[in-house]
Amino acid sequence: MVDLQSRFRGCLLGGMIGDVVGAVVEAETPEYISKRFATMEALLATDSVEEFATSAWKVGRFTDDTQMSLSVARWLLEDPSRSPSQLLGEFSRSYEPCRRYGPGTEMILKLYRDHPQQWRELATAMFPHGSYGNGGAMRVAPIGLAFRGDLKKVAETAKDSCRVTHSHPLALQGAAMQAMAVAIATSITEVSVGGFVDPVRRMLNEFEDLLQDTSKFTTALDRIEAGLGLRETCLAMSTLLGTGIEAFEAVPMAMYCFLRHPDSFVDAVTAAVFIGGDTDTIASMTGAIAGAFHGCRSIPTAWLQRVQEETYTVDYVGNLADQLFEAFAE
Ligand SMILES: [Mg+2]
Asked: Is 46 exposed, middle or buried (0-12, 13-18, 19+ CB in 10 A)?
């Protein structure tokens, strides 16, 4: 039996470590990744990789996924009113250019500094209908932990946290789905496919009631169920579900990686890295779900030791998870 505090730690550290290992091969193809790195150990043993032909990416660093997840955790701890503008302020204050933010989010966080009152308008600064990238979903794990006993609250809070930078309905659906997956993983002792897929379908019905198209996600859920029934590999399913930066590709793909490897944190996250595409985000979301289910002891020490951060260290993240646990254990 995994205790709740270990699940909180497993979720935040699992998300961080998934981001760290996925960042090494972000935007690469599965063919390139498996040719360059025979195993996860080989990937972790590498010092640095070329980054977009300009400079080197130091293996052991995390990206925007972790940076923004930590902001969401602090927001939950420090702002009882759960004000979206406070969250955007927190994102803006902790923004660091080296974390590979998407261009839309980067623009919003920079604009916020000079125009904090216009936070509502900023969400459509780059895309008139709002972004449907996975940037809203990749950071919601702390919300799933905090409100795990109330899936409606999980979905609503995830949507509120998402729309400050990603206001398209598809981004909101993805954020709600990922936060619910974390909440469910935190609360169960045995994994069943229906236990994950059915509540997400019910959540999507509410979007349908608002006349919003949910077919991208409902189709993905059908494919997840069919693929698991046939025991399709994550790599085979990646051609159907997609590994792109869109919320409707990355979020279902992360859920598949977890459900296909429900017995092993290592196998789930490794699968998420070797399918290529938006690997840092997909592996981070997979790691958050798997860590919430298995607890922090499922994460290999050798992986955690590979993290190379000065401020937001493994100890810092573990500590933040403990604070969340203290605040939201009841
Ligand atoms: Mg990233």
From this structure: middle
Rounded to whole angstroms, how far apart are CA atoms 245 and 26? 11
CA of 47 to the centre of ligand 1 (A): 19
Q: What is the pTM of this model?
A: 0.97
Which element (helix H / strand E) includes 93? helix 84-93
Give 167's pLDDT tier (boundaries 50, 70, 90): very high
**Residues flanking ion ligand 1, Cβ below 5 Å:** 63-65, 280
> Is residue 296 within 8 Å of 45, Cβ to Cβ?
no
Name the helix (H) or strand (E) containing 198: helix 193-209
For 249-305, what is each residue's pLDDT tens digit?
A: 999 999 999 999 999 999 999 999 999 999 999 999 999 999 999 999 999 999 999
* Contact by Cβ (8 Å): 124, 130: yes
| Spacing, Cα 265 to ligand 1 middle (Å) | 20
At a CB cut-off of 8 Å and minimum separation 6, what does 264 contact?
290, 294, 298
For the domain covering 4-328, report its CATH number. 1.10.4080.10
Tokens of 91: 């994102």
What is the largest distance, in Å, between two alpha-carbon atoms of the chain? 53
Domain ranges (residues) in the chain: 4-328
